[in-house]
Amino acid sequence: xxxxxxxxxxxxxxxxxxxxxxxxxxxxxxxxxxxxxxxxxxxxxxxxxxxxxxxxxxxxxxxxxxxxxxxxxxxxxxxxxxxxxxxxxxxxxxxxxxxx
Amino acid sequence: xxxxxxxxxxxxxxxxxxxxxxxxxxxxxxxxxxxxxxxxxxxxxxxxxxxxxxxxxxxxxxxxxxxxxxxxxxxxxxxxxxxxxxxxxxxxxxxxxxxxxxxxxxxxxxxxxxxxxxxxxxxxxxxxxxxxxxxxxxxxxxxxxxxxxxxxxxxxxxxxxxxxxxxxxxxxxxxxxxxxxxxxxxxxxxxxxxxxxxxxxxxxxxxxxxxxxxxxxxxxxxxxxxxxxxxxxxxxxxxxxxxxxxxxxxxxxxxxxxxxxxxxxxxxxxxxxxxxxxxxxxxxxxxxxxxxxxxxxxxxxxxxxxxxxxxxxxxxxxxxxxxxxxxxxxxxxxxxxxxxxxxxxxxxxxxxxxxxxxxxxxxxxxxxxxxxxxxxxxxxxxxxxxxxxxxxxxxxxxxxxxxxxxxxxxxxxxxxxxxxxxxxxxxxxxxxxxxxxxxxxxxxxxxxxxxxxxxxxxxxxxxxxxxxxxxxxxxxxxxxxxxxxxxxxxxxxxxxxxxxxxxxxxxxxxxxxxxxxxxxxxxxxxxxxxxxxxxxxxxxxxxxxxxxxxxxxxxxxxxxxxxxxxxxxxxxx
Lengths: 100, 573
Fold this sequence. Notes:
The complex is a heterodimer of chains A (100) and B (573). Helix content of chain A is 55%, strand content 2%. By secondary structure, chain A is mostly helical. Chain A has one domain (22-96). Chain B has 573 residues and is α/β, with parallel strands linked by helices. Chain B is built from 14 helices and 30 strands. Chain B has a five-stranded parallel beta sheet, with helices on one face. Chain B has a five-stranded parallel beta sheet with strand order 14-23-17-18-19. In chain B, α10 links the parallel β17 (297-304) and β18 (342-347). Chain B is elongated and about 95 Å long. The mean pLDDT of chain B is 94. Classes of the chains: A mainly alpha (100), B alpha/beta (573). Chains A and B meet through β1, α1 and α3 of A and β22 of B. β1 of chain A pairs parallel with β22 of chain B, so a sheet runs across the interface.
């Protein structure tokens, strides 16, 4: 059971970088990912949008696996700034998990 | 020998018939039938050239009967009646035989038998044509007044439009004031104007019209007469007011679905239906507060009471259509009041049809999150420490179980037909499976009912938003006005008739009539049945009920039908 965390949601909404609300779950990003990361990014962004902080933190290693190559971003049909969103999450994890 | 002179035309339908039915063989088989003067085949009987040829035959050969063996009467009965009319032949002396649907299309694998069947059918048609009679259309002078039942936005707009066209209007509203649901509403989609303002403007405009009279606390209690000339009775407070109107427009609106106790937590403080939530929004000036507590998050559950999802005994199976749009719009309004609000929409399917997709887009861009549940696994709502805990399996997050805490739960409830059916006892309008009033055809005749002169519009007919209701109200207005402005209506003469000699007024027939067209009159020294030919549709339900055989339908007399059966069964080997 994943819990919606309102304060995480608040932070996501307040940020100017994270813009995945337009994501329609088409899956092109997952298909073109050279690392064949199954989770990234459509499932991950779903977790972020819903405010499922636990799920996001659980997947910290995968979030750091990303090359930021922007293959997904170039192919995104909904103009989601995928790479920028990943950087936002890394920054969040850095603050939250590693107290940077 | 029959003295009749009949012309018979067998149509090829460009191969639709002739590919399977040997039309020449049919023609040869029937050419010698009693009374047949002209027997021809034609490539397209409905073409201009063929129509002209038939007209010339009728005039030169002095025909007094006509049979076209072609397609379904639905398609071309009126075409060939028109041909007869133009040739100076009474249109009711024409008989259509359906070879295409009943022979060639039905029996593509057995052409010989299809041809044989065609011969029998044409012989039956000729037998009927020998016994046809000239009939005249029934003409009724119309009264240039209309009654609008129900003073919601659709009714008020219809009244204004009828008034614009010079037709006097009576508006009967059951409650103490006009305006209906819309009068109570604040910001509405898609125009973002306030419902109360819209109604105030309509009411002001109506007040300035001399030819509109509004009755409140009014109910329609009786109706008699027929299209163009109805006598109705309104019960207004304690008074009974008789009115004489040409048409009736029914715009009685809808009821809102009320969930069963416990349905998604309904009955608990903080679980609201969509109209209740809309009221909360309309009353709020700033950030949302419910019963003194600030609202930080809202969960919406869609399709409550619609599409078979109800805890009630007879769930509504239809999609109520307007609720997705209304909920999207409410979500945007809520965001505008409290920008920090978290909103979760739990849906089965989103149907923001047409331009209302923009409402969906707007709600999403304002931060609303959408989660899809399976109808077999609906969300569970429980109240824990003053908050709601909503759990569901979100199909968009790959079936993960998700738990949301919220301050309010909004049940996105749909529209229902009005529970009060007393109006229906008076008007005898048919209802659809969903209990809303039923039109003749949803696309081709969307505001007409089987009762001529009675029109339906707005959400009395189906779930609709205000803009759609007004559009249909204007359609009903146009139909009403077209009927009334002409000054008279002409009706089909194919109606039931009573043989007053045979009739003994046993009243067996009365309950068989779906249109209440049979009444008792005194003819000479005895009481007999009389058919109101303006109400009768010629359905024939009453005919077999008569123990004396005193009833018949014009154009389908017992003699004609017997002759057709005899002709069809006769052997011609």
